[in-house]
Design brief:
Number of strands: 7
Strand order of the largest sheet: 3-4-2-5-1-6-7
CATH topology: Rossmann fold
Number of domains: 1
Largest sheet: 7 strands, mixed
Radius of gyration: 17 Å
Mean pLDDT: 89
CATH superfamily: P-loop containing nucleotide triphosphate hydrolases
Low-confidence stretches: 248-254
Strand content: 5-15%
CATH class: Alpha Beta
Structural class: alpha/beta
Helix content: 40-55%
Number of helices: 12
Distance between the termini: 20 Å
Order of helices and strands: EHEHHHEEHHEHEHEHHHH
Length: 257
């Protein structure tokens, strides 16, 4: 099982869009996927029109077993949603002994999936630390501009610190350039810098595409909403690339971390 957190401490870079469409694309390729929403803004629920009876908050506070909080969305695709109450959970857990490992330990009991994909909030709070201590891989969506590239470099340092603090070995195995517009010089230059600095882990760029913005209004992935769009083509390539990664041995030289 591959455990992947889609993370960047900078907001507005396409984390939820990437998590939703990556999970959907993998499930369409006969992979069993669990998509987890770690963001109190509950963007997964909004984007896919999910109304689950229980959510991550219920599990973290010990009210409901984690497995009962998982909701089946479709063939090969389950979701674990969140709500704004997740902020309260983080507050209540802050002074609890072992809080940094609570979610990690609960997720370790989950079986039967080929992929666990986690959509993380743009923060470095307790829950993000939990998920970084659980996942083996970090995918970092990054806008192709100066501030996006700066945030990407900081994420590499954050991953290194998490590994040191928790005796862990999570690595950045995929950098995903987003909001890419080939007509602009800053996008082309930033993409080149990403490829030079993170050689071997930068995916195909995800182009600016209005269909990606529209799809959540209808509760659909880009593949269901506009399968012929550039957004579907770009995320389709990303899915193919992620599937191919599972069939090769990724060496230390090709992983950032």
């Amino acid at each position: 099982m591959r455990s992947i957190c889609v993370i960047n401490h900078k907001g507005g870079v396409g984390k939820t869009t990437t998590a939703v469409n990556l999970a959907s694309g993998l499930s369409r390729n006969d992979k069993n996927v669990l998509l987890i929403d770690l963001d109190p803004q509950s963007n997964i629920s909004i984007s896919l029109k999910v109304d689950a009876p229980y959510n991550l908050y219920d599990s973290l506070l010990g009210n409901i077993p984690l497995k009962r909080c998982i909701f089946n969305l479709g063939k090969n695709l389950d979701v674990l949603t969140s709500k704004e109450t997740l902020v309260k959970a983080e507050y209540h857990l802050a002074n609890k002994v072992g809080a940094q490992m609570l979610l990690r330990d609960q997720l370790r009991e989950i079986e039967g999936y080929d992929y666990i994909i986690v959509d993380c909030p743009p923060s470095l709070g307790l829950l993000n630390q939990n998920i970084l201590a659980f996942c083996k891989e970090a995918f970092v969506p990054t806008s192709t501009d100066y501030l996006g590239f700066d945030a990407l470099k900081k994420m590499k340092l954050i991953v290194e610190k998490i590994n040191s603090n928790y005796n862990h070995d999570i690595k950045i195995t995929k950098v995903i350039p987003t909001l890419f517009d080939k007509r602009t010089k800053i996008c082309k230059n930033t993409l080149a810098e990403m490829e030079n600095t993170f050689n071997g882990v930068v995916s195909n760029p995800i182009r600016v595409n209005s269909k990606l913005k529209e799809a959540p209004m209808y509760g659909k992935s880009i593949f269901s909403y506009a399968k012929s769009s550039n957004g579907a083509k770009d995320y389709g390539k990303l899915v193919e690339n992620v599937l191919a990664m599972g069939s090769i041995r990724v060496t230390e030289e090709t992983i950032a971390g």
